Each structure stands twice: as C-alpha cells, then as structure tokens.
Amino acid sequence: MSEIPTSSPEKKEILDDNARKFTLNTLDESLLKDYNATSFLLITDWLTVDENSEEKLAYKQYVDKSIQILLIKKITVNGTRTSVKEKISEDTYKELLENSVQRIEKTRFEFTYLQDSIPFSLKYDEFSNSALRVLEVDAASETERESFSPTNFPAPLNEVTGNLSYYGYRIHDNLG
User: In the Cβ-directed half-sphere of 30, how many Cα atoms lie within 13 Å?
Assistant: First the structure.
C-alpha cells in the first residue's frame, strides 16, 4: 500500500458532520432549480471502514466537467462526527483507488433552503441504480439544525438521523 501523502495543515479542512438525515421519494426538479442547486456526480470509494471511523476518496465531477478529488477521514467520538477533508491529485487518487473496498455513485445536489428566516444547508442525494434518496439538513448551530421542521418542507420526509445504516459506507446495504 502506498503511503498517503501529507500536506500542510492549512490545506486540510476539519468540519463537524452532524447534519440531520431524511429519506424521501424524490425532490421535484423545479424546487432544485428555484433554489439554484449545484449538482455533481459523486463517486465515493471507501479505503477503510470501521464502526467509529472511515477513510474514503470522493471524486466530484461538476456539470462544467471540472473535477475535485478529496481524501476524507471521518471519526465518531461520543456521538459526534468530525470530518477532515484534503484535496489530492489525480495521480494520488489513482494510486489510492487500488485499495477501494466499496464504491457508491450518486448525483448530489447542494443548495440553501430558508425556513423561518433560517438558512439551512441541504445536500440531496440520488443514488445510481437505486430508488434511495437522502436529504441532509445542516445549519450554523445545533439549535438552528434542530429547528428545521420536516413537515414544513415541500416534500414528505422520513427522519433517519441517528440510524447508522444511513451513515457513510453502511448506506450501501440500503441501495438494493
């Protein structure tokens, strides 16, 4: 196995990863258009999977054909998920890809949704070759995140926050 290249800390992005998760049938295309959703193909390859941590490659190809490749490490401690993201080169990606233990492809839509004057950051995933659709809802604080009302959203939502089968590599089992 080739060694993962290191880079200066300022090139790594550390984020909380505690968004609320919902399943749904689909989001109307007009809603995505009205909210100026950005979309891209997201191919995720897991390199390591563990109950409390995972390491994966994320290959994003945008509509304009631009590409972003990330090495992502996620760790869960006391119920809080933290994500460390680092941009990597295509050559490094190809080297690390040889160690993939699981792959998922999906189209991701990202947009900001206002509800009660609170801006929510939404990520909507349509998984390839599956009817599964997942919506992640995040906000600037835990209090704001908790204030999101699924019943006031323009599509029926089923909350799966905390159900580990909808997190990371485990979601693969729901794609059937």
Answer: 2
